[in-house]
Amino acid sequence: QADVFLRHRDGHRLPVRVRARALKDATGRIAGAVEMFTLAIAPGRCEPAASPGGVERLATRIAPREFGEWQLAHALETLRRFGRPVGWLALALDDAADWRHRSGHGFLEAAICLIAETADVNLGSGDLLVRWGAIELRVLVDNTSPAELTGLARKLAVLVRISTLNWWGDPHSLSVSVAAVMAGEQDTPEML
Fold first, then answer.
1. Do residues 89 and 153 lie in contact, with contact meaning Cβ atoms separated by under 8 Å?
2. Is 88 helix (H, G, I), strand (E, B) or coil?
3. What is the mean pLDDT of residues 37-58?
4. Could you tell me the CA-to-CA distances from 179 to 27, 87, 88, 91, 141 in Å, in that order?
């Protein structure tokens, strides 16, 4: 059994659990194998159906900034009252101005969609993905530790870097900068 990240036909990476079992003939020698692939997505999250271009599903799968701000304020209040830790990730597309100049606004939207799809299927069931700006995403990570938050930030950055965005038949590799911060009891949404 192994946990791997396979490339979806839309370019983003999916967590997949692979299991293999040997098939033996009558003499006991291995004659073949059976491989089983299972999505290893957190409960409450699911892999969306593929759609041409990929851009149109972005609007329905990511929370808008206003909702993210409200959820962040609620999470900070829960932290103050009950001590439940919360982390905050900021993801920004690297070299966005160059990408916009070379390929246009549509490319940036497709890039954010790929980043969002990669992030969404690799988050926990209580985490919230938020569209923060034109080239920025935020993730509210519920009940996490500093080590887990840093690990998630690194994981998302690597998964985006090994994904591929096909734009007009040309494959493009992207990268994101990811900042991670654990909220403190005195923090406000504006401080994060």
1. yes
2. strand
3. 59
4. 57, 10, 8, 7, 13
Residues 87 and 183: beta-carbon distance below 8 Å: yes
The mean pLDDT value for 184-191 works out to: 90
For residue 26, how many other CB atoms are within 10 A of its CB?
6
Q: How is residue 113 written in tokens?
A: 């969609």
Q: ∠ at Cα 180 (179, 185), nearest 5°?
A: 135
Sign of the Cα torsion 176, 47, 4, 31 reads negative
Spell out where the chain has E strands: 2-7, 13-24, 30-39, 86-93, 128-131, 136-142, 165-167, 170-172, 176-182
Residue with tokens 């998302």: 156
